[in-house]
Amino acid sequence: MIIGLDVGGTHTDVVLLDPSGPVERTKVPTDETDLFRSILSGLDRILDGRDPGGIERIVLSTTLTTNAIVRDRVEPAGVLVCAGPGMDPELFRAGPHYHRVSGAMDHRGREIQPLDQDQIRTLAVRLGEQGIRHVAVVGKFSSRNPAHETRIAELIAPYVERVFMGHRTSGNLNFPRRIATAFLDASVYPIHRAFFEAVGAALREKGLTAPVHVMKADGGTMSLEASIESPGQTLLSGPAASIMGALPAACTDEDVVVLDIGGTTTDIAVLVGGVPLLQPLGIEIGPFKTLIRSLETRSIGIGGDSHVRVREGRLEIGPDRGGPPRALGGPEVTPTDAFVALGELESGDPALARAGIAEIGAALGLDERSAAQSIVEIACERILAAVDRMLARIDGQPVYTVHEMLEGYRVRPARILVLGGPAERFAPHLAAQARLPVSLVPDWGVANAIGAAMARTTCEVGLVADTERGLVSLSNGDAQWRCDRRYTREDALRQAGEALRALALASGADAEDMDMEVTEDLQFNIVNGFSTTGRNIRIGLQIKPGLIRGYRPSTSTPRSDPC
Amino acid sequence: MLKASHKTGLVFFPAFDWAIGPTHPEREERLLYTRDQVFEEGILDVEGIREYRPELASVEDVQRVHFCVPDVDSAMTESHYISAGGAMTIGRAVLDGEIERGFALVRPPGHHAMRMVHGGRGFCNVNNEAIMIEALRRRYGIRRVAIVDTDCHHGDGTQDIYWHDPDTLFISIHQDGRTLYPGSGFPEEQGGPNALGTTINIPLPPNTSDAGYLEIVRDTVLPILEEFEPELIVNSAGQDNHFSDPLTNMNFTARGYAELTTLLKPHIAVLEGGYSIEGALPYVNMGIILAMAGLDYGQVIEPDLCPESIAQSPEVGDYVRRLGELTRRNWRERHDRMAALRANGQRLQRRSRRIHYDTSGISERQEETVRLCERCGGALRIESTADQGWPVLAVHIPPHACEDCRRTGRDWFEEGKRGRFGRVFLQDRPEDRFEIA
Predict the structure, then answer these.
(1) CA separation (Å) from B232 to A349, B136, B264, B280, B289?
(2) Chain A contacts of B278, Cβ < 8 Å?
(3) Closest Cβ opposite residue B36 in set A83, A173, A177
(4) B112 catalytically annotated
């Protein structure tokens, strides 16, 4: 059996799955100041009276690192960058302990300026004296050649506790994002490590010996051990868990829009043929733009508890939340109150809800029922408008080859899947307005925890071969090896595949369940003086986000139409 | 948060699956390292910099500028439609006010493509800038446009297209035609009789460095631009003046290009040539983008830059200064020259030319006739015979043609249909119509 646990802002949702589907579902309130206790009490509830030995896998999705970054409650981390020609690296400063050091690589990974070892040692000593224990080391074009990063890491290792290297974060090009990503890894590392080591110990104490996985923003998981190596990958994993929870209800032969309607926001995602779309580069959190792989999601500030008010004769919904709905004694009117007033939802005190809606109605010159209907209609309208904007944006993304330009895939959704706390109430109203059929995801209230439970381990590698220089470099690993002029694209694909497999196994993947996909496959002749002197081969491989095998998502009556 | 002081748009279309030939300079890999540099710098994350997906130019867009023989589709590959479309995308975004400036990093290039197109010249089949400008004129009603061509090769195609257009100021700064393809672009080439002076050629001597180039721009190009008062400034941004370019002999640097862009303040830049794909293009393009956006480019320094070895000699400096004086004098005296040209009461002016399509290996004979006109660019007819094919007649009626020129153009077209031509084309710009007979 599998446990899936998703810590949300208000609730922690937990499910227990056996191969036939969810057998237990529970919600406990989240205590933002003590996530550890939230997790343990959720686990206690779901395990109540069960044999922990029967649990084969535990997947946790938490807001730990996200909250730490958003609230700026992290230990200061050091950053060493080497840049070379281009923009001033000072523009990408991350934190007060940010230093540029000598050394530069060019776009083909050739050294154009050597490192200055004395300068690096001096800085390392200084960082040590300042009590900086965790340091990010990032070079421009380090995903083309990590040699400078690995050498700097060696040099400073004696002076600090832990070094995070930029090329390990991603094979993608983007120096400022690489800096931010490695910096975030170094920043959340102590808090993440302490927390998950404590969780691991507590689970063992309960007799839970199953592998523990942690949810990532890309809709995949990684083992607890692997997460200590790249803790930044756990940032913003919340929306990903929910979207993965919609996958079982999606057909694999059509495109689908997923709406995760929460208290404050609605997250929108797109599944193409049953696979969620990934963001081209990575998540943005606070001031940081990163290379942390993530599902493509858009968030709009409308949810069940959004603050509803009338301003200059117009109805406004969100983006803020003023607390619980009026029906539950909250300060502001919310869409939830509208559902209560319409008699579509039983929650709290209907008189309080109706009084609130009547206030809104008075300001609009509408009776109570019409006001409630307006609130729901406008909320749905705005959510659907955000869906359209997101689809337009996805289709407008630039392409770089004639083939892509002419054959470019356009997302054409056939259905909208809805999940999340207030989903059941919103669904019929969305259906009334949308041009597409709207279905409710089975177990919509805990689909997020189901998504976490069933998410497969994901990872990616990037390989660059330069046969003129006779060098192959692998990102997301430190490997570099020689190749000869006969090295081909097929060799590159094979070696990248082996590397991805090794990395996936180390991250806790099931050897029998790896859905590999080529994300980049380019090969160019390198020409010098009008003759071909080598090839530049670029391969990107990933394990796609998806669901693990052997478990069925749900035994409850499907409320979505069959495919 | 890093923010561009000028909202800047980019179209980046490296056409990774298109080449003239596997080892041809115009090949798949050409913008690969530029893409690497642009992506690695994270420039697309800067607030105020936006990347656009290029649109496809239409056959009508091409026909607004060119006479393609036998037809547009034979002149174009998909990549040409996208390349021209990419320039159009930037142009629209500027005129729609979404961005202040934009740069279309597209290939294949276009500035050697003339009005008649029998094949490829200097790696160019159709003229991206002209297709964009004429689409913008049609859509937004703008009239006065300046094109500053900073490719190292003379922009003979753009010159040809705007030779008779008094509303388009075309300035080409290039390496002297006595030392480089296409062998034209001398100061005495100043435009046709209806547009004398609005074509300006500034052939710089080999080994001109940043100093000489920027001096010409500051002291000569900018004052002329200011006087012309264009509604739109377009830069044909070739990057082959770079000291590392394999096909040319100039000593320009990436920071020089950035400085040039800061001075010119083009609304739209369109990539042209530049074949030092590793040593120059990544840095030059970065420099241009940063300069357009108003960001610091002080650290865009080529790894193999050795300032001493490319310092400009005093002789080159003197030559450049005299060239600037000559150019400014020609500009000042343009009205007098035009008046003198018309003094003999001639109604039509003819010229015959041989045009070589080096990329396609085609040779063409042209007999060009323009109606002398004080009120517009003048009706234009081109009789053209390529060494492989029938003679064709192409008639162009310019966008703001007067009644007489419109009638003349239509008469030529009708006569042509009865003549010995294999094909007769009419580019009726006031009606935005293209006819083939």
Answers:
(1) 65, 10, 11, 28, 18
(2) 106-108
(3) A173
(4) yes
> What is the greatest pairwise CA distance in chain A?
83
Question: Domain B3-334 in CATH: superfamily?
Answer: Histone deacetylase domain (3.40.800.20)
The enclosing H or E element of B340 equals: helix B334-342
- Residue spans of the domains in chain A: they are 89-172, 460-543
CA distances from B51 to A1, A409, B89, B314 (A): 47, 19, 11, 43
In the stretch 289-318 of chain B, residues with CB closer than 8 A to chain A read 290, 295-296, 298-303
Chain A contact set for B17 (CB, 8 A): 401-403
Question: pTM for the complete prediction?
Answer: 0.92
DSSP A76-129: --EEEEE--SSS-GGGG--SSEEEE-S-EE-TTS-EEE---HHHHHHHHHHHHH
Q: Three-class SS of residue A241?
A: helix
The answer to whether the CB of A165 falls within 8 A of the CB of A153 is yes
Length of chain A in terms of residues written: 563
What amino acid occupies position B190? Q
Concatenate the DSSP letters of all residues of B17-28 into one string: T--SSTTSSSSG
Amino acid making up residue A190: P
Nearest-CA distance B25 → chain A (Å): 8
| Token output for B89 | 């995308």
For residue B13, give the nearest of B66, B112, B67, B83 by alpha carbon: B83
Q: Which residues contact A142 (CB under 8 A, 6 or more apart)?
A: A105, A148, A149, A165, A166, A167, A178
Cβ–Cβ under 8 Å, residues B91 and B130: no
Displacement of CA B173 from its chain's centroid (Å) = 11
Residues A30, A328: Cα–Cα separation, whole Å: 18
Q: Where are the alpha helices (DSSP H) in B14-143?
A: 32-41, 59-63, 72-75, 78-95, 128-140
Q: Closest residue of A to B47, CA-based? A: A289
Question: Which residue ranges make up each domain of chain B?
Answer: 3-334, 348-436
Please answer yes or no on whether B29 and A106 come within 8 Å at the CB atom: no
Which among B66, B111, B112, B242 is annotated as catalytic?
B112
Q: Is there a contact between A405 and B2 if contact means CB atoms under 8 Å apart?
A: no
A518: its two tokens: 């080529």
Please give the residue of chain B at the shortest CA–CA distance from A400: B13
Please give the DSSP secondary-structure letter assigned to residue A73.
-
A533 CB contacts (<8 Å, ≥6 apart)?
A468, A526, A527
Per-residue pLDDT for chain A (563 aa), expressed as one digit of tens each? 999 999 987 789 999 999 888 999 999 988 888 889 999 999 999 998 899 999 999 999 998 999 899 888 899 999 999 998 999 999 999 999 999 999 999 999 999 999 999 999 999 999 999 999 999 999 999 999 999 999 999 999 999 999 999 999 998 999 999 999 999 999 999 999 999 999 999 999 999 999 999 999 999 999 999 999 999 999 999 899 999 999 989 888 889 999 999 988 999 999 998 889 988 889 999 899 999 999 999 999 999 999 999 999 999 998 988 889 999 999 999 999 999 999 999 999 999 999 999 999 999 999 999 999 999 999 999 999 999 999 998 888 777 777 777 767 788 899 999 999 899 999 999 999 999 999 999 999 999 999 999 999 999 999 999 999 999 998 876 678 999 989 999 999 999 999 999 999 999 998 888 889 998 898 888 887 768 888 999 999 999 899 998 776 554 434 445 44
Instruction: Compare all CA atoms of chain A with the CA of B245 and give the residue at the minimum distance.
Output: A529
Q: Which of B1, B33, B301 is nearest residue A85 as measured by Cβ atoms?
A: B301
H helix or E strand, kind and range, residue A380: helix A368-395
Q: Output the CA torsion B118→B121→B126→B129 (10° steps).
A: -150
Return the number of other C-beta atoms located less than 10 Å from residue A88's C-beta. Answer: 16
Q: Which helix (H) or strand (E) holds B385?
A: strand B380-386
